[in-house]
Design brief:
Arc Repressor Mutant, subunit A; 11 strands; 47% helix
Length: 301
């Protein structure tokens, strides 16, 4: 059986656009024609491939097909770029967590993207969820907290991102005049990135015995505004050392728990068989990340 290119194109457009209508605009056909092509592809494959929700999402077989189509498109683009001197750059989809993108990743990645002629589209999610984006075919590689590789993929350790519990000096004086403790932490507002962010809740439960919901909190799901909200005293929260070291050194922020921190391990996941440029990019990213991040602890023998 061969995969019909027009039908697979409609399937990809629906996933990327999030709806049959968006796919129709991209392909310059009607939504009905998009639906018919996807239905024909499902008949060819003998299984449902697309959940027609908003946004559209792949079924489990659809995820496997999406992985294949993404990789095929990348290999095709890589091949054509090598054959044509004037071919445009190749686009790759990378799933990364917000703090990684806000701190060390771009300076590490930019030189190799420029050198290799690669365009990047970042798909952002919590480091505990980026691996799922790779599984679903929504990314070609990812930075994740997951240690085990997906079948057909490799995993390379990157290092540790160290987080500190910080606050503005005025905030610390108001809410923690005698230092942070269980009773004070019950009342002080905490900054939480989004509903997937468990760092603050893990830290407060582990060190102060406070379960989630036992304290007030704000949601600010954007990296720069999240940092700003702590700087202006809206609340206190965890920041990666790469993001707050200068502010701690200048006194703009204070470390509420200087003897305590939270380390988050990060790993690079990529397909075992991939185009040479993506393979070179991954190798350069892993090498540079290990120079920037704290080393992972040696595994226990």
């Amino acid at each position: 059986m061969q995969i019909d290119p027009r039908r697979s194109e409609a399937f990809l457009a629906a996933i990327d656009g999030g709806s049959l209508e968006a796919a129709a605009v991209r392909l310059n056909i009607t939504p009905s024609a998009v639906s018919q092509r996807i239905s024909a592809l499902e008949q060819d494959m003998g299984t449902p491939l697309l959940v027609r929700s908003r946004p559209c999402r792949p079924t489990a077989p659809g995820m496997r097909l999406l992985q294949f189509l993404r990789r095929r498109a990348l290999l095709e683009a890589e091949f054509l770029a090598e054959q044509e001197a004037d071919a445009g750059p190749v686009r790759i989809l990378l799933a990364v967590n917000n703090d990684t993108l806000a701190t060390w990743l771009l300076p590490v990645l930019a030189p190799v993207l420029i050198a290799e002629g690669l365009l990047v589209e970042f798909v952002l999610d919590n480091q505990g969820h980026t691996f799922a984006l790779l599984e679903q075919g929504l990314a070609l590689a990812c930075v994740s907290g997951e240690t085990a590789p997906m079948r057909g993929c490799t995993v390379s350790p990157l290092g540790l991102m160290r987080y500190r519990m910080v606050a503005a000096p005025a905030f610390a004086r108001r809410w923690f005049p005698d230092g942070i403790n269980r009773d004070a932490a019950r009342r002080a507002p905490v900054m939480v990135f989004d509903r997937k962010d468990t760092m603050q809740s893990m830290f407060l439960l582990q060190h102060f015995g406070l379960p989630e919901g036992a304290y007030p909190f704000h949601y600010v799901p954007s990296s720069d505004p999240y940092v700003q909200s702590i700087r202006i005293g809206l609340g206190y929260g965890m920041l990666p050392l790469e993001q707050c070291a200068a502010m701690l050194a200048s006194g703009e922020l204070v470390d509420l728990t200087p003897d305590l921190h939270l380390d988050v391990p990060l790993y690079w996941h990529a397909w075992r068989i991939q185009p040479p440029r993506l393979e070179r990019m991954g190798a350069a990213l892993v090498k540079a990340a290990r120079e920037v991040l704290l080393p992972l602890p040696a595994p226990l023998s």
